């Protein structure tokens, strides 16, 4: 929207031991843009998302969010690894939603949402709770605030997880296959919340197999395979007229 | 789902269990014979038992045993938590130190350890702080071990910490990795993640074996005779019997007190366990009124009873709640 770059990856690589999981990934996401990443299982999509908020460390290349290097500080031409505290500070601006929701099962929905604002931002409990109620309303669960995760359906749990991430007022939201663990009839309610979020101008990177969502909501689409970006561009174009054989083969399987 | 017409009810002759009945009868008879015999046997000295069971010296000693148990368990749990976290640390040195502690304190008998703590003040008469082979900065007499009660608490706690650390470690490892990851992604620090997210969930796993450890510790306190400390329940009852030459009645007295305490602890453990398995919610049964609600999404439009709907729906929405 403003044309400002939110995420910039410049030849990012990452290995686990001898397993090269990301090979020279380059892409950029502008503020307010929605990027969808698709690709077969094991192609490194989750690893790439986890690198963006420094849950994994990048081995080579440069990865920055809002112009700030992720996980490192550059000084006098040298890179210094950030302390855990500094890395945590960078994560405050980045929300993440997981395939398996990862709600805290010993806390109610509202308690899940208020943890980070209270502990990290030192917000008062009353204020955090009021904000949590607002967010629960926003994801369509206004009456479920005092439910424990185990008493909510998968779709409801994932919506609480989205509210929990939003409670930190992130500038960027990362979604790692947010609907893959859901029963088919529950996928729609989560996608609806995400569509609303996209409309409100949130910058989003979404790993998904929901091609309908990608076509409708994404501003751009990246197809990854074997740790490389095989093809990227306008989602309608990539989905209807893929240029590469691997993209074609993958799409013919999922569509 | 149910057929409109039910099939014919089954009316079969139930299977008989003649052996069960026979074994039960034999056991009950054997027990009755033992009790009747014991009641008449001179050596048990039931009159003496009655005389000493509420003796002031005995009840005081029982209090000491309770104190030994509580203090050493509190220290052991704290130290055990620290050791467990050390063992999960990425730092290999920290990890090895914790492992070494475990190896020594779990690998030697607690009786031997207590004897050692009893004489440690002789081996290390002064404690010093400073650079090795140079004049120490601070020198204090090592007189903490002159207090035998404190020595007993330290000896019992250091031994127990090794076992507690294994229990705590198992609890921490039982918490799904995704929990730590989600907490980290929310910018919470490692300490906050442990304190507010991981440890509370680990408690469900930690509490039942810890209850067993408390009960076990209550009985292990009788080994403080090795220090030698003799003001605990076992020590005092032995002291009395040494004078009166009636060892058996006083053993019975001590046993009755131990049984009383362990029984109370077992009841307490039952309630604590129940409390910690609530909240994380396996079932919806305890909240029947709210139980009907989730059906709005999971969808049970058929008008069968609200309880049935809640029970069948709960597991359906549970897939990520993680049956740990
Ligand atoms: N923590 C890890 N340690 C070792 N290997 C890993 C780890 N995480 C992911 N991998 C490996 O990295 C590859 C890419 O995984 P992932 O990023 O999860 O792919 P995707 O999300 O596209 O399915 C896989 O081969 C996987 O086995
Ligand atoms: Mg993945």
UniProtKB/TrEMBL annotation, chain B:
The ABC transmembrane type-1 domain sits at 62-269
As for subcellular location, the record says: Cell membrane
Q: Which InterPro entries match?
A: AA_ABC_transptr_permease_3TM (IPR010065), ArtM/GltK/GlnP/TcyL/YhdX-like (IPR043429), MetI-like (IPR000515), MetI-like_sf (IPR035906)
Ranges annotated as biased composition (Basic and acidic residues): 279-288
Q: What's in the keyword line of the UniProt record?
A: Amino-acid transport, Cell membrane, Membrane, Transmembrane, Transmembrane helix, Transport
Membrane topology field: Multi-pass membrane protein
Q: Where are the transmembrane segments?
A: 21-40, 60-86, 98-124, 144-163, 214-236, 248-268
- UniProt-recorded Gene Ontology molecular function terms: transmembrane transporter activity
Q: Which GO terms describe its cellular component?
A: ATP-binding cassette (ABC) transporter complex
Q: Where is the signal peptide?
A: none
A single GO BP annotation from the record? amino acid transport
Q: Could you confirm whether the keyword Membrane appears in this record?
A: yes
Q: Where is this region: Disordered?
A: 279-324
> What family does this belong to?
Belongs to the binding-protein-dependent transport system permease family.
Q: Which PANTHER family match?
A: L-CYSTINE TRANSPORT SYSTEM PERMEASE PROTEIN TCYL, MEMBRANE COMPONENT OF AMINO ACID ABC TRANSPORTER
**Know the name of this protein?**
Amino acid ABC transporter permease
Q: Name the source organism.
A: Arthrobacter terrae
